[in-house]
Amino acid sequence: MSLLSVTDLAIHFGGVKAVDGVSFDVQAGEVFTIVGPNGAGKSTIFNLISRFYQPTHGKIVFDGEDITATPAHHIAELGIARTFQNIELFDHSTVLQNLLVGAHTKRKATWVEDVLHLPRTRSNEREARRAVEEIIDFLDLAAYRDKMIAGLPYGVRKVVEIARALACEPRLILLDEPASGLSVEETNDMAFWIEDMKKDLGLTVLMVEHDMSLVSAVSDRVLAVVEGKPLALGTSAEVQSDPRVIEAYLGTAA
Ligand SMILES: Nc1ncnc2c1ncn2[C@@H]1O[C@H](COP(=O)(O)OP(=O)(O)OP(=O)(O)O)[C@@H](O)[C@H]1O
């Protein structure tokens, strides 16, 4: 069964058809990647799914529930978490503090229970700590646990952003260009983290990525979009050898 289903999705900004009739299904447990030249509409698709943007047209269904009109602040509770192309962390907080903010979305205590520091608040805090420590171990971040984000190397910050998304305990994680700005070695490590998220955590991954080495290494299926429209869908090799995709990339480069 598909975990995420996007049907005839479109958003127009004035005269710009940023996304224009995109449909795809993401199966539970797969890594599904969207590729395309600059300005193709990839990040806009992410912003529509995470509900930062309201579509002009179309439907988004997550786990059988129509989320086309769901407010953005409910999306994490439903089980969708994301990272951003330009890392969005609290720079003057530690890795641990950033992850605890992510874990906050799973808390069940009401504000009254919080103010009175009732048992459910305390057990929530213990549970959040335990979950966050597991993620720190899982992504090998123990050495950075109490370090400020601002002082961390870029590659580590990229992994912390993934850790923060995992702290929401999602079923679907959206990764917006996880390899951008990374060295070849860091990109190889990123491929391992993505594989581990899929195999060890059973997560479904929807990714936007330009780095074709990462795309080929981890993707079960790839969708190419050009000028807001879907162009080709298949394995990474199939999409990369599709003449329409090659032409779209060369045309853009030219
Ligand atoms: N909020 C907005 N207002 C107006 N135009 C927008 C807005 N967001 C995106 N666009 C336009 O939509 C088009 C698609 O942009 P988008 O950022 O989704 O492309 P992309 O495929 O993610 O590109 P890149 O690979 O460079 O990140 C572009 O022409 C962009 O200028």
UniProtKB/TrEMBL annotation:
Gene3D superfamilies in alphabetical order: P-loop containing nucleotide triphosphate hydrolases
Pfam families referenced in this protein's UniProt entry, alphabetically: ABC_tran, BCA_ABC_TP_C
MF GO annotations: ATP binding; ATP hydrolysis activity
Start and end residues of each ABC transporter domain: 4-252
Organism: Pontivivens nitratireducens
Protein name per Swiss-Prot or TrEMBL: ABC transporter ATP-binding protein
Keywords (A to Z) from UniProt: ATP-binding, Nucleotide-binding, Transport
Cited CDD domains: ABC_Mj1267_LivG_branched (cd03219)
